[in-house]
Specification:
Two copies of one chain form a homodimer. Chain A is an alpha/beta fold. The first copy, chain A, is built from 22 helices and 21 strands. Chain A has a seven-stranded mixed beta sheet with strand order 10-9-11-12-14-13-19, sandwiched between helices. Chain A has a five-stranded parallel beta sheet with strand order 1-2-3-7-6, sandwiched between helices. In chain A, strands 16-18-17-20-21 form a five-stranded mixed beta sheet, with helices on both faces. In chain A, strand 13 (about 440-445), helix 17 (about 450-460) and strand 14 form a beta-alpha-beta unit.
């Protein structure tokens, strides 16, 4: 560029940055809340990015060639929304609706806005999710789009960031750029590392990244850094920008006590005077180059595995077989696992489709985040690990629901029935945890044919879809021609004289069947329901059972008593007219140790003999 | 040492290491399961540690001067138990009960054993917990004990490790030593970094640690490394030991497919031949030096804050005031927060007792782990952050229950009623999540005087104790002389003509009171219960209400419908005789956005007017 062109470019960057600062202040003052100073520190960085490096078509957010911009520091949403206005995507009028009831411009960004990939606001999530998008970009879409993640310095303390740093290096994600806004001040004072940009750089480099330290308010340095970062060179890049919180306004710059505070009207007036913006302008963002997604193989019908009624097969094995079958039918299916694929059987998929399987190692936050990133790129991700270890990623699952992400999670080794490994490996809270996720689907199959069909349906189901699988081999109960669906159940035994209904799922359904036989030999007939769809529950079948079988249920689950299958059954009745049923919940009441599955289920009070006891005790009362 | 002494020392180390290997194999073969090869790779490291550096009194596990040995790679439990046998703490007979039902020697270590500090088995937790213990050692106990953490290489992918690395440096925890067993092989093949010990070293150094790379089977190098690590020099130390999985047995060494597999009887025989141990011996561990805990100020009676009935005070503020009062009364009370102490009001404690407050920054896994570590050293830790962000640490909370840790967690900013910040900051699943933790206590106060008393009781209560606090200021409801307790409730309104009972807690209790007034003006009398103790519930009061007020409840909560207050009320009745009550649950049914607290509660269906509607609808049916 000539000197004139350079000056003109710098002028443009300056104008945009000032406008972004002014708009961050105006919108938060109008809202009476929000984070203007956190927005102002990153304004110069975003100005250069937006003007000169971001390739995005605001008229076509679905363009696969679009870059991805993720505000991991989601509280800087005023800056993001100001950028949307500057790009011409929203009006100033809408910008002024920030944080108002019904506005698309929420306190932290959500995909209510078509240009927002994922909800942020819980710190330390943007980069791991960015890894997922970058994996899709480099290995599946094979398109050159960049993933730009704006990071705050406080959130670098989150361990999940370092899962992302590690994985991005391992997978050579040179399409991923982290922009670290080191403004020194956290919510309540100085961050741990303050302005020690060298420390951030050293850490990123030790994890294998390029890391460039710059003055986050010097356009030359910003521009150089972005130019470097935009050139793929085999490694991801972190731009470590030393910035000033509240930059541009004298009474805000680097001052404590201003985090998350909007300016008063008077302060706003003073601030705008200092910022001295030119009139509000539009700064069009360059559209991405045209590019084609790779030609995909045709989708084929799914050829699910079929299991023989004479066999015993673990549902976790059926998960693996079915996932592989899905992979053969649909090229968008992607497999992810947390270094336990020989236990979850995701390895079946990994061996068959290595180009679509991404090992996530022992890093469950990154595992779920990668699935969310894949969902951003419209893949159909299936992520698996031990059910107990999804608790490591609960905040990511919670945020994925806010992101309206479509991800499938498979948790194996559920319950005390895993046996000798003991409680650290046992999931006893996962049904409660996953039921309590907005819009989730929760499945707990008892049989491999059932599992296979449900796995296929998981692929077609939106939202967070969770399947709980069992370690132990269990007898095949159903013919592969039997039909199963989300929201369904199976009545395995029923008669006109059912005294009550036993509801089980997964491993306890088998205990329920043993109990049925024992009761039958005692001339007691009961209904037995396999409630393989824990959420949504098969209300119709349960209501009928209540009506026809004494309005009494024994619900048995390999899970703590709170929030699981028992509560799911009860919930069918709480919002309705008519007498509430009698419900006895059999669940795990004490902390298990080691032992055989049979010993542990007996001790937990969820074995066949306990079910029989509970039924008999109930029937005496009636 | 003389050459003879050196040779003799090496011989001792060798003898012990071989015995540990033999016993790891014998115990797992007897169990038919377990992780012998993962145990064998660390045998030389543990042999040197145990013989020459560990200072521990097995006869007096409560000795405050004891070192702490944490097996973060908990699956190497056979090695740990073999060490206990070698130290003379358990018999060979007990060693052979590994993984059997009723044995103290579970698949992964738990504090059922008096020499185990915390349960491990969910990877990546030992080091963050070790940070907590080390903080106690350096800053509170002021005793020179060491914290030795045996780490696996696979688990270095866990982000939580890097929260620990970061914090250990920040707090200069030179009493903390990580021993990294780099045996290259994870559960299903090579780990991400394989034998790249330089990479681990670089990362640790970038995070500020001393890091020494050694051959994990060379006694000279092991001994030197431990000698260095044991000298405090201002920084924590990581010993990066290149090892061989299955070391010592030719058909196991560095072979894939042996993770988590026990040897058959024949293989055991062959292996023992190769290992060629001398007869089983006892290797006494050196006791720690005598040392005194610092003289503590006397405990004083707690002088709780008192709030005036004319005021409006947020329960989160009362938490902060009460914690400060607790800190003044009891020198064992420790404060921890996740960089939001100006929001949680932990800052009140932090300002008053800076020597007992440890900022954990934006790292919630480390926040909870530090509390667990403090619990190991018999402190009374209170850890706070936004309630929503405790989901980040759910695996640590789950494991803390298995550890039988005593920790107090305070989650602020619960529910849609936080307002404009939006859903990323709103806890809507925390009651379900915390109810589903073994042995937990869950409290949700509606009033500051109530909060203060409950905070005091949290300090005296064992297990995982969780309090949910509200962002908004709410009217003081109770006189400070009113009594509240865990397991209690308050009947605010009752009469002989109560048509039904409204149950609320926290913010919705205030909505319930408004509803009561509206209903009263419509000549409808209802009972109103403040269920501030969500777990355990006040069964007596609820049973009486069922009996006296139409066996009908409207339960209203600022929480998703699953697993929270409504289910807690229902649970009082499920295991009992007698007709189940009619229960209508009012809870948040749709994903909230931004808005004022009033707008959001209205939209969520949990405001006073919705309660009135629900009551009227119910009464029409009766």
């Amino acid at each position: 560029m000539t000197i004139t062109e350079t000056n003109s470019q710098v002028q443009q960057w300056t104008n945009l940055a000032q406008q972004l600062r002014v708009d961050s202040i105006r919108s938060t003052t109008a809202a009476g809340s929000g984070h203007p100073t956190s927005s102002m520190s990153a304004a110069d960085l975003m100005s250069v990015l937006m003007t000169s490096y971001l390739r995005y078509d605001f008229d076509n957010p679905k363009n696969p060639n679009n870059d991805h911009l993720i505000f991991s520091k989601g509280h800087a949403s005023p800056l993001l929304y100001s950028m949307y206005k500057a790009a011409g995507a929203i009006t100033d009028e809408e910008l002024m609706t920030l944080r108002k009831f019904g506005s698309r411009l929420e306190g932290h960004p959500t995909p209510i806005l078509p240009w927002v990939d994922v909800a942020t606001g819980s710190l330390g999530q943007g980069l791991p999710i960015g890894v997922g998008v970058a994996l899709a970009g480099k290995y599946l879409d094979k398109l050159p789009y960049h993933i730009w993640v704006l990071l705050g310095d406080s959130e670098m303390a989150e361990g999940s960031q370092w899962e992302a740093f590690d994985h991005a290096t391992h997978y050579k994600l040179d399409n991923l750029v982290g922009i670290l806004d080191v403004n020194r001040l956290g919510q309540r004072g100085e961050t741990e590392l303050g302005w020690n940009t060298a420390a951030y750089q050293a850490r990123a480099r030790a994890f294998g990244w390029n890391a460039i330290v710059i003055d986050g308010h010097n356009y030359d340095e910003i521009n150089s850094a972005f130019a470097q970062a935009a050139q793929p060179n085999g490694s991801p890049t972190l731009i470590v920008a030393k910035t000033v919180k509240g930059k541009g306004v004298s009474f805000l710059e680097n001052k404590e006590g201003w985090h998350g505070k909007a300016l008063s009207k008077d302060q706003e007036e003073q601030a705008i005077k200092e910022l001295n913006p030119v009139r509000s302008m539009t700064f069009p963002v360059q559209k991405p180059p045209a590019g084609q997604l790779p030609r995909e193989p045709e989708k084929k019908p799914v050829d699910l595995p079929r299991y023989d009624l004479k066999d015993s097969v673990a549902t976790r094995k059926a998960y693996g077989d079915a996932l592989k079958a899905l992979g053969a039918a649909n090229p968008d299916v992607v497999g992810l696992d947390g270094e336990v694929s020989n236990s979850t059987y995701a390895e079946e998929f990994a061996k068959a489709f290595p180009e679509r399987f991404f090992e996530q190692y022992i890093a469950e936050q990154q595992l779920v985040a990668a699935a969310v990133g894949m969902s951003v790129r419209h893949k159909i991700p299936f992520a698996s690990t031990f059910a107990a270890f999804f608790t490591r990623a609960y905040d990511f699952i919670r945020m994925a629901a806010i992101s309206r992400a479509n991800i499938r999670l498979a948790g194996s080794h559920a319950g005390v029935s895993i046996g000798e490994d003991g409680p650290s490996q046992m999931a006893l809270e996962d049904l409660a945890m996953m039921r309590c996720v907005f819009g989730s689907t929760v499945l707990y199959p008892s049989d491999p044919n059932q599992t296979a069909q449900l796995v296929e349906q998981m692929a077609n189901h939106d939202g967070i879809v969770y399947m709980r699988t069992t370690r132990e081999k269990t007898p095949v109960l159903y013919s592969p021609d039997e039909q199963f669906e989300v929201g369904g159940s199976k009545v395995i035994h029923q008669s006109e004289n059912d005294r009550l209904t036993i509801v089980g799922a997964g491993i306890t359904l088998h205990e329920a069947l043993k109990a049925y036989d024992q009761l039958k030999s005692q001339r007691v007939t009961v209904r037995v329901i396999d409630a393989y769809s824990v959420k949504p529950m098969d209300e119709e079948t349960l209501l009928a059972a209540a009506q026809e079988a004494g309005n009494t249920f024994v619900v048995v689950e390999d899970h703590w008593p709170e929030g699981g299958l028992g509560d799911a059954v009860i919930d069918v009745f709480t919002q309705r007219d008519g007498p509430m049923p009698q419900v006895v919940k059999l669940a795990v009441q004490s902390m298990p140790g080691s032992g055989t599955p049979a010993e542990l289920m007996e001790e937990a009070g969820i074995s066949a003999h306990h079910i029989v006891e509970a039924v008999n005790a109930l029937l005496k009362r009636v």
